[in-house]
Design a protein that fits this description.
The complex is a heterodimer.
Chain A lengths: L1 E14 L2 E15 L3 E6 L5 H8 L7 E6 L2 E2 L5 H11 E4 L11 H6 L8 H4 L1 H11 L15 H13 L5 E5 L7 H18 L2 E5 L3 H5 L3 E6 L2 E4 L31 H8 L1
Chain B lengths: L1 H24 L1 H7 L1 H32 L4 E7 L8 H14 L4 E14 L2 E10 L3 H4 L4 E4 L13 E4 L1 H6 L10 E6 L2 E11 L9 E5 H7 L10 E5 L2 H18 L4 E6 L12 H32 L1 H9 L4 H31 L2 H8 L11 H28 L2 H6 L1
Parallel strand pairs in B: 3-8, 5-7
Antiparallel strand pairs in B: 1-9, 1-10, 2-3, 2-6, 2-9, 4-7, 5-8, 6-7
The chains are: A alpha/beta, B alpha+beta.
Chain lengths: 265, 410
């Protein structure tokens, strides 16, 4: 089932003494439950802007975004905030843990915005989620006393504690070493698989990109499929931007590493 | 409906929980930034509280001099200057007082007693009164008691004296019934000191009160020098009408005599509040202090909001609406200043109610120290909340205007 769809989406920004700058243009993309999507691209290619649009943090200047079939343009800021809180989880490169708060307080933060029973059970849910990411013994630790990998695991627990349908990871391993990065990605994928959430990863790291099922490239604001050959489940380059559902993860060898590396060069 | 109520309740509770959490996390910074507000509220509230005590001291001082409001003063005189027939005047006054059911009334005259002290004979100013005078003039006692009914029947006249008088006698315990020899019409008269009035430090000359009937019976003051007036403590609302009626009735009852009945209490003096200028000046200073405290708070809040922009962005990314962020930042300021205001008010109460302060402002002359004025405490708290709201508004608006995507990258 489609979570979010972008149809002809563009994003331009006005500049005072220059013509408008086009960051994204004519992006068509659909993310469905269980999707595994990676987006690669050079710096300034529009990756973060795309992530912000997918995360309902920004509004497009052209085209239409639909979330659960509802046109985002028509939703109020408050409604968008609630939708974001309930359905989308963010994992940032720099973890962005709230300072001065313990691991469990950080994980409980999104639950403060839940207007249902999750708010009242926030401590138990946060404890469970921290246990799920292997930090059950460190729930009262301050982030600045934790390693980078542990901090990112706290961030993952925080992103997933409300069981979002869409997980947006912006360079989630950018601040981690190779091994820790791999562990963190495996954890995120595992939890996402358990909850049936879609996972969209923006990365410069070809190894991380290869873990996804659908591989997209952003170049000067234009999105295109990265695969030349049919992807897992028979996905061809032509329909790589279409949702493929919760397909089996592609073997890493299926992703053309050379092409990925070329993009990142 | 129940689901909606549940969501709303959860929304309200979670908003306050979040604000409390924010306050807890930032408590050190918040408390430090609120020192200025606490000091300002302390100053403002102390001024208001001190003004109330000073007002009470002034009122009591005025009441001791001119009597409690409304105090009517009646004077009788003849156009020719002949003395007024005292007995007839007394009878006319008593009759009028009974007719109007005046509960407290007294004869009042001023004379001089000749008293024998160890250092010789001294003339002592004396106020010659009836028993009710003590209540009517809020006479506060330092030692012993004021006159009571029956004192005029004593074989030795009772005297109430001031502290210098008492000290000239050697400050004897009143339980020993100290006496003083007065010069009466028929020779020395031994008077008993029954009470010592509370006396200002500025009063250094001996003074006494004597009962009119005793003075009359023992001839303590030559009659020719004793011109009685009358005082009546009446309800304020009825004072004006009673003054007119008493004037007419006394004039009618005493042919050849003219009566003048007027209010003499301080409320009838007009001219407004004598402490008003002082209050305004000090309150003005306190308000300036409060504004400076608020300015400091706004500055700190703005700086910290800038510092916390990333944090605000992160919260927004997890579903915090702009309303929640606004409320959270505003509440942080309001709750903080309310706490600071509470501390300021508490300190002000401790300061104003301290014996040192009461002695300083009251100069030992305030009989009934007023409780700490509730309005001063409320003004203190309200000011701090208002300052918190105003100081929190700007940072809250700034926080709401932050673009989430910019904030996260901040």
């Amino acid at each position: 089932m489609s979570i979010i769809s972008l149809e002809g989406v563009g994003r331009t920004v006005e500049r005072p003494d220059a013509p408008p700058l086009t960051i994204l243009s004519s992006v068509d993309l659909e993310i469905a439950d269980g999707d595994r999507v990676s987006v690669v691209g050079r710096s300034g290619s529009g990756k973060s802007t795309l992530l912000n649009l997918l995360g309902l943090l920004d509004r497009p200047t052209q085209g239409t975004i639909r979330f659960d079939g509802a046109e985002v343009r028509r939703l109020s800021d408050a409604r968008l905030a609630r939708l974001r809180g309930a359905s989308i989880g963010f994992v940032f490169q720099q973890f962005n843990l709230l300072p001065g708060r313990t691991a469990i307080e950080n994980v409980m933060t999104p639950l403060l915005y839940d207007r249902g029973t999750a708010f009242w059970r926030r401590e138990r849910l946060a404890t469970e989620m921290l246990g799920r990411v292997g930090l059950g013994e460190r729930i009262t630790s301050m982030p600045d006393r934790m390693s980078g990998g542990e901090q990112q695991r706290v961030a993952i627990a925080r992103a997933l504690v409300r069981r979002p349908r869409l997980i947006l990871a912006d360079e989630p391993t950018g601040a981690l070493d190779l091994e820790t990065g791999g562990t963190v990605m495996a954890l995120m994928e595992e939890v996402a698989r358990e909850t049936g959430a879609a996972l969209v990863t923006i990365t410069h790291d070809p190894a991380i990109a290869r873990r996804a099922v659908r591989h997209l490239r952003l170049d000067a604001g234009v999105i295109s499929p990265l695969d030349d050959e049919p992807g897992p489940g028979g996905t061809s380059p032509a329909d790589a931007t279409a949702p493929i559902g919760a397909v089996e993860r592609a073997p890493l060898a299926r992703v053309a590493a050379t092409e990925t590396d070329e993009v990142l060069a | 409906m129940i689901a909606w109520l549940g969501r709303t309740l959860t929304g309200v509770v979670s908003t306050f929980v979040e604000s409390a959490e924010e306050l807890r996390i930032h408590r050190t910074r918040v408390l430090l930034s609120l020192i200025g507000v606490a000091v300002a509220v302390f100053a403002l509230t102390t001024v208001l509280g001190a003004a109330a005590v000073a007002q009470q001291a002034l009122d009591e001082s005025n009441e001791r001099g001119s009597g409690r409001p409304a105090m009517l003063s009646a004077s009788l005189f003849t156009p020719s200057g002949e003395p007024v027939d005292a007995d007839a005047a007394n009878a006319a006054w008593r009759s009028a007082a009974e007719r109007h059911e005046i509960g407290y009334e007294s004869r009042v005259a001023y004379g001089t007693l000749s008293a024998q002290f160890v250092d010789g004979l001294s003339n002592v100013d004396s106020t010659v009164v009836d028993v009710d005078y003590g209540v009517m003039h809020r006479t506060a006692m330092q030692e012993g008691q004021w006159f009571v009914d029956g004192d005029e029947q004593r074989f030795a006249p009772a005297l109430v004296v001031n502290r210098p008088f008492w000290e000239k006698l050697g400050s004897p315990p009143l339980a020993t019934h100290p006496t003083v020899e007065l010069r009466g019409a028929d020779g020395p008269v031994t008077a008993v000191v029954v009470g010592v009035v509370r006396t200002s430090d500025y009063e250094t000359y001996p003074r006494s009160f004597a009962l009119a009937d005793s003075v009359d019976r023992f001839g303590l003051v030559p009659e020719a020098y004793l011109a009685f007036g009358y005082e009546a403590w009446v309800p304020i609302d009825a004072a004006e009408e009673l003054a007119i009626r008493l004037t007419a009735e006394l004039t009618a009852a005493l042919p050849g005599t003219e009566a003048s009945v007027n209010r003499q209490d301080y409320l009838s003096w007009g001219g407004g509040d004598p402490l008003l200028v002082l209050k305004l000046v000090v309150a003005g200073v306190a308000v300036v202090i409060l504004l400076l405290g608020a300015l400091g708070l706004v500055t700190i809040s703005l700086v910290t909001v800038k510092y916390r922009i990333r944090e605000i962005g992160i919260r927004r990314s997890f579903g915090a609406t702009s309303g929640r962020v606004f409320f959270s930042v505003l509440m942080e300021s309001v709750v903080g200043t309310a706490v600071a205001g509470g501390i300021g008010v508490a300190l002000a109460i401790v300061a104003v109610k301290s014996p040192l302060f009461e002695q300083l402002v009251g100069q030992g002359m305030v009989e009934d120290f007023p409780p700490f004025p509730l309005d001063a405490a409320l003004i203190g708290i309200a000011s701090s909340v208002l300052v918190g709201a105003l100081a929190g508004l700007l940072p809250a608006v700034t926080a709401v205007r932050v673009r989430v995507i910019d904030a996260i990258r901040f």
